[in-house]
UniProtKB/TrEMBL annotation:
This is Cytochrome c family protein. SUPFAM superfamilies: Multiheme cytochromes. Signal peptide: none annotated. Keywords: Signal. The keyword Nucleotide-binding does not apply. InterPro entries: Cyt_c-552/4 (IPR023155), Multihaem_cyt_sf (IPR036280), Multiheme_Cytochr_ET (IPR051829). PANTHER family: C-TYPE POLYHEME CYTOCHROME OMCC (PTHR35038:SF8), DISSIMILATORY SULFITE REDUCTASE SIRA (PTHR35038). The keyword Signal applies.
Amino acid sequence: MKKKIFVILSLLVIGFVSIKLYKYISRSTEQYSDLQVIAYHYNGEGYVGSETCMECHRDIYETHLKTAHFNTSSFTNLDNIHGSFKEGENTVSLMDADIKMVEIDGKPFQHAQIKYGDRQAYDWSMDITIGSGLKGQSYLSNQPDGLYQLQASYFVPSDKWINSPNYTDRINPLRPVNDQCLKCHVTFAKSSSTSPNSNKYDISKIVLGVDCEKCHGPAEKHVVFQRKNKGIHNDTTLIGLSSLSRQQRLDLCASCHSGLRSNQIQNPFKFLPGDTLSKFSKNYNSLRPSTTLDVHGNQFGLLTSSKCFTESDQMDCMTCHDPHRNQRGQKAYFNSKCIGCHQQNTTTCSISTTEMAQMGNDCIQCHMPVVPSKNMQVQLTKLDNTTPVGVRTHNIAIYPEEVAKE
Ligand code: HEC
Ligand code: HEC
Ligand code: HEC
Ligand code: HEC
Ligand code: HEC
Ligand code: HEC
Ligand code: HEC
């Protein structure tokens, strides 16, 4: 009798334990199978996307969603296009064609109507939006034979649809989009051909936006490790950015903020934080004096030619920028960075306090003025939309004309 009870009890205990164990195992596998790898880097490491980071880095995740970086590319839908679809506001008129933004079955398209001859028409889907919409947006179309940039773009300063920069005033063959174009606006893309100029991609495997893993490297291993070992320190699954040299930290930002670097030596998507940028790409005109540098972004070239940089040994981009926040317009924050250095061991401003006050004590207004982009202006004068894009120069210097302006 006692034996029977003992056996039954044991069976019950074993059953209970196995159910618990089963539940525990299935839950943890469930948790791990949540982890979706969007794409694999050339080194085999997986990109998992910033949503995965929310679980443990909620603060950074939430501020990051508001940055121009995160929003610089996304799958296009009617909501994230900043330009108008209203009749009369939705057209770019060229010499030989009209391009209209239209909605077909709830999806955005560019509809090109040729004005002459057999009056052919084309419909191109708008699939990927490039640009956070601060200055403008451009659209990519995923066609059967590859990825292309569409001819109509949206330009913020004039709030109008425009002919995309570098397109002529006629209907142009669509411009293929390859790694060279994508490298600064997405985190990772791998074309399906080994040819360096290929424009063929599985767009569901493009890691969009300048996301966490652009600056921190693919993080699949980190997430798996941290989920297993809740909160363990001395985690070496990621490249520690704070332990990198000044040049390595600069190179990370310079990979997108030092001009087009069209002299490509290696695939730009092989570049990882900690790598030496000059082994990947160079600017053809790197010997040109830096004052003539222009955007599409060369904050690196401009900053490194200013005295604040050359005469201090710590300054890098993070001296003034928190890469996890949208800090646009935070004058007081940026000024505090200038004063931080300029009240201690370096010289302070020699201008009169009256003049200083007239400019609201805003160091940046006088020493990092907004200048019109030469590139973008030339492109736009042909199109009646002459409003140039203003860019903040990173050549911190004395600009006497800025004082005279007031
Ligand atoms: C399950 C929790 C968890 C998830 C998910 C997670 N992390 Fe972490 N992460 C941590 C912990 C804990 C640390 C601190 C480790 C240490 O101090 O060594 C950390 C540290 C970091 C660091 C600092 C590393 C260093 O050496 O300075 C970075 C960068 C980072 N995580 C990025 C990410 C990114 C990007 C993602 C999403 C793709 C992510 N983490 C997802 C828990 C997590
Ligand atoms: C534009 C590049 C960039 C992006 C995008 C970025 N980071 Fe960072 N992150 C950095 C840099 C640079 C540092 C080191 C800061 C320093 O040493 O001054 C850093 C530091 C960190 C740290 C450790 C220090 C801290 O502040 O806690 C964590 C954790 C982290 N990042 C997580 C993330 C997560 C999660 C995301 C996305 C939601 C993200 N980062 C996106 C560049 C970036
Ligand atoms: C993969 C390319 C890439 C990398 C790497 C990168 N950036 Fe950017 N950054 C961009 C692009 C593209 C934009 C413009 C986004 C837009 O408006 O669509 C931008 C915009 C910015 C802006 C302007 C934000 C605003 O609100 O106007 C700052 C500041 C900036 N980056 C700083 C940095 C710093 C600092 C680093 C290094 C830690 C860095 N970036 C690394 C591509 C990059
Ligand atoms: C070398 C890096 C780089 C390459 C390559 C590049 N861009 Fe950019 N792009 C930037 C940076 C940086 C900005 C932000 C401008 C600035 O410096 O303030 C930007 C801004 C933009 C903007 C305006 C975004 C906004 O709202 O602020 C659009 C649109 C854009 N780029 C489209 C493209 C397209 C289309 C291509 C490919 C043909 C391309 N870019 C190639 C770096 C690059
Ligand atoms: C990391 C410290 C540091 C920071 C931050 C810094 N500077 Fe400087 N700056 C220096 C040093 C060092 C010099 C050269 C020696 C001197 O003039 O004291 C310098 C020089 C200058 C000069 C003289 C330039 C010339 O060509 O003669 C101006 C103007 C200036 N800084 C303005 C600024 C402004 C404005 C800011 C904020 C946007 C700023 N600095 C941020 C360290 C810094
Ligand atoms: C001495 C401070 C300082 C340093 C160092 C610095 N920046 Fe900036 N940056 C600024 C200020 C100030 C602005 C203007 C912010 C605004 O408009 O609200 C700015 C704006 C920008 C913008 C937006 C430009 C525009 O006109 O839209 C980009 C991109 C940028 N910085 C990138 C970088 C990169 C990359 C580095 C490192 C190579 C860097 N910055 C280093 C102070 C700095
Ligand atoms: C009204 C425009 C204006 C404002 C605002 C302004 N500066 Fe200046 N700054 C100048 C001019 C002009 C000079 C050159 C004066 C001269 O050489 O007589 C100068 C000179 C400097 C110098 C070099 C001094 C030297 O003798 O070499 C530094 C450093 C400097 N400013 C830093 C700053 C800082 C930091 C701020 C913000 C607290 C600031 N400036 C605000 C216009 C301005």
